[in-house]
Design brief:
The protein is an alpha/beta fold. The protein contains 24 helices and 21 strands. Strands 1, 2, 3, 4, 5, 6 and 16 form a 7-stranded mixed β-sheet that branches. A 5-stranded antiparallel β-sheet has the order 17-18-21-20-19. It is globular and about 110 Å long. Bound molecules: flavin-adenine dinucleotide (FAD).
Length: 713
């Protein structure tokens, strides 16, 4: 018989048995009521035919679990009631494991080749994980039944786990749960009348049934801890409650919170306090954008009724101002300030020696917990010849003091786009090169089009769909060769700024040696409590992702610090449900929640409401009457799914929608709130008004109209 026929016969048998089970309503025999009704009859039969009863019970149990039929839990309780604790425990333990293994084998025989053939690439990581740690995961799933057992049987059958391993781990893993159920069953069997239900024995047994998953989870946590820490010597006492590595947004906030709750905390920074955001990111970029904006106003002098729009400016002076802004903000993140807050600041490179030891400047600090906040660095794509030019990144851009001339900016994301416009306004001849079909591709296409159009109006050359392949020299000048629709396009340049993404800093400070897991995205892998695979080592900010913003780094810092310091008492899962962001181009683009594209892709039903900011009084008065507010709501409801604002001060305007989403407020609430006239914030209220108009109760209004006409006589 070929495997194909065997499969067909097996499927037919399984289907036949399942159909028979439901068609003849056999499930009624597996209900507590039925078993309770027949308790005495079963007991009598058992007394007369012990072996036969156990055999029938065993075979039925195997069939029920092998076919993934409902009723195994009730059968386990009944087993306890009928057979007594030890006989039931042994019988159920073997029957359930054999049944589970048969389901596992059937799933493997019928589906594994097909699933692995179709999704093999995608399952590679899972397969590797199962080969490495499958037994442990199976054990945890058996002990804490997060998923129904039949799902585990069917899914594990598709993985490379050996059948014998599956059998043995299942038997051991299910044993404690089986014992708790069987024990509850023995108590059920003893209920003679209503008052028996309240007997201490039965109450205890059912409390045990309820709290067993919690106890099991605790056991698994302890096992995981032991497993993670095995091979490392735990110090007897610790110098610190927490050592934070990296003094950027994530590290500073972590240290701040720890010190605020009186923990002993050390903060280690190898470079400048404040990290990227202060020194090479948000602060200098926004300072540069501000100066560039002044120049754009000058060029638009006519829009404001002014005759001349001449500003004298010097590139170097603008860059010096940027530096001045950084210096002015510096005290907020300084060693002095943090020392004053109670944080012990160390300047030097940190090295994690063990899960409880961090080395800095030759000294070893022992600590209960470690928070990794080492950030990210500009990603340099493997473009042929790139190393031959003195390329710029967001790290060294701030050091230039001369207009870069013909500047290629590689990257159409937020950083690339912000710098494209700012540098062009400051006099560089900018070509922005993006591989994807549009810039700012995380936003809806209309946003990308609008910003690209704005850039082009300002004289910027935007090359989308252009994949940078090589940097070379032609006639003595630098040239970037890009592939566009199968052809090579040459883009000559004097300077090139690479802004194609940021790579998490996960190497060079001991993670590899320690065995801290890194995700497929190259970030430190963390669970929802922000723990790495070492339960006392946490990671926050750019190094952990998934977002790379200052405000998400500080948001994560709260969770990591509280979980590190108080995790034994109460832990908090990091909440990414309402994450706002803004791109500070002119006009700005700000978003919270879903974009329309994302809602479509996820198949989430939505309604769109738009308000054009060209209609807003304040925007007209400011000659900033462009852009829009676009709100996505649940159909038939004023509850927000997302909001995108394109316009002047969009980043600030967004705050109202962030608040609304965070606290479940709808557009009716925004509409019912007084907004100062004339401000840009009225755009939010106007958008809510648009939504209201579209949802006006037409029928009711028709009656109201009749009422007014009647009153007029
Ligand atoms: C040009 C640009 C503009 C940006 N604009 C914005 C914006 O407008 N809004 C926004 O929200 N975000 C913006 N960002 C992103 C923001 O800067 C980052 O998301 C944020 O800085 C991440 O903080 P972090 O704490 O994770 O890492 P970082 O700020 O990078 O801090 C990590 C720190 O760890 C230190 N470190 C690393 N390894 C070690 C070690 N072994 N020992 C000791 N110290 C170590 C580093 O020196 C660094 O100081 C921008 C970024 C760039 C580049």
């Amino acid at each position: 018989m070929t495997a194909r026929y065997a499969k067909i016969i097996l499927v037919a048998t399984i289907v036949l048995l399942i159909v028979a089970f439901f068609a003849f309503d056999l499930h009624r025999f597996l209900t507590l009521e039925y078993l309770k009704d027949r308790q005495q009859a079963f007991a009598d039969f058992y007394t007369a035919n012990r072996i036969l009863t156990i055999f029938i019970y065993f075979v039925t149990y195997v069939v029920v679990t092998a076919l993934s039929l409902p009723g195994a839990a009730v059968m386990t309780l009944a087993g306890g009631a009928l057979l007594g604790f030890w006989v039931a425990l042994i019988t159920v333990s073997f029957a359930s494991t054999i049944g589970a293994t048969l389901a596992f084998l059937a799933s493997r025989f019928l589906l594994r080749d097909w699933v692995q053939g179709k999704f093999g690439d995608k399952l590679k990581a899972i397969n590797e994980g199962v080969e490495r740690e499958g037994s442990f995961y199976l054990f945890t799933l058996r002990l804490v039944p997060l998923f129904p057992f039949f799902v585990i049987n069917l899914v594990m059958g598709l993985t490379p786990m050996r059948a014998l391993t599956y059998y043995l781990v299942s038997q051991v893993g299910m044993l404690p749960g089986t014992a708790v159920y069987v024990n509850a069953g023995t108590q059920l069997g003893q209920i003679e009348n209503a008052s028996g239900i309240l007997s201490p024995g039965i109450i205890f047994s059912f409390v045990l049934l309820g709290i067993f998953p919690l106890i099991a989870k605790r056991i698994i946590d302890v096992v995981k801890r032991r497993k993670a820490f095995s091979g490392w010597d735990r110090p007897k006492r610790f110098d610190y409650n927490v050592v934070v590595i990296g003094a950027g947004s994530g590290g500073l906030v972590s240290a701040y919170i720890a010190a605020a709750v009186k923990a002993k905390v050390a903060l280690i920074e190898k470079d400048k306090m404040g990290g990227d955001c202060l020194n090479t990111g948000c602060v200098p970029s926004k300072a540069l954008i501000r100066s560039a904006k002044m120049l754009s106003y000058a060029r638009r002098a006519g829009d404001f009724g002014l005759k001349t729009g001449q500003f004298e400016y010097d590139f170097a002076q603008v860059m010096e101002r940027v530096q001045g802004v950084v210096e002015k903000v510096e005290p907020h993140d300084s060693i002095e300030r943090y020392t004053g807050l109670g944080v012990e600041c160390h300047t030097g490179s940190a090295w994690i020696k063990s899960p409880w030891e961090v080395e800095v400047n030759g000294a070893t600090l022992t600590t209960k917990n470690i928070i990794i906040a080492t950030g990210a660095k500009p990603f340099i794509p493997p473009i042929k010849g790139i190393e031959q030019v003195d390329y710029l990144t967001s790290d060294n851009l701030w050091d230039i003091r001369e207009n870069p001339g013909r500047l290629v900016i590689l990257g159409g994301g937020p950083i690339g786009s912000e710098m494209t416009q700012a540098m062009a306004r400051l006099g560089a001849e900018v070509t922005q090169v993006e591989m994807l079909p549009r810039i700012m591709s995380r936003e809806d296409p209309e946003v990308s089009d609008f910003i690209q159009c704005q850039f082009e109006q300002e004289g910027i050359r935007v090359l989308t769909g252009h994949a940078a392949r090589e940097v070379t020299k032609e006639n003595g000048e630098n040239v970037l060769l890009c592939e566009f629709e199968g052809e090579m396009v040459s883009v000559p340049f004097d300077k090139i700024l690479i802004a194609v993404g940021r790579k998490p800093n996960v190497t060079g400070f001991g993670l590899e040696k320690l065995g801290v897991a890194v995700s497929d995205r190259g970030t430190v892998a963390v669970d929802p409590l922000l723990r790495t695979n070492f339960p006392n080592i946490f990671a926050v900010g750019d190094v952990a992702g998934p977002f790379q913003f200052t405000h998400t780094a500080s948001h994560m810092a709260w969770y990591a610090t509280v979980n590190a310091l108080f995790g034994g008492l109460k832990s908090f899962k990091v909440d990414y449900s309402v994450i706002p962001w803004a791109t500070f181009t002119d006009p700005e683009v700000a978003r919270v929640g879903l974009s329309e594209d994302e809602a479509k892709a996820a198949g989430i039903p939505y309604e769109v409401t738009r308000y054009g900011i060209d209609d807003l009084d304040r925007a007209i008065a400011d000659s900033e009457d462009h852009g829009w507010v676009k709100v996505l709501t649940k159909p038939g409801s004023d509850k927000l799914l997302g909001a995108t604002i394109v316009g002047s001060h969009a980043g600030d305007l967004l705050a109202e929608y962030v608040l609304a989403m965070k606290h479940g407020l709808g557009l009716n609430k925004i509409l019912g709130t007084i907004h100062t006239y004339p401000t840009m914030s009225e755009a939010n209220k106007a958008a809510a008004g648009e939504w209201k108009k579209a949802h006006a109760p037409e029928k009711l209004l028709a009656w109201v109209e009749k009422f007014h006409s009647w009153r007029r006589g």
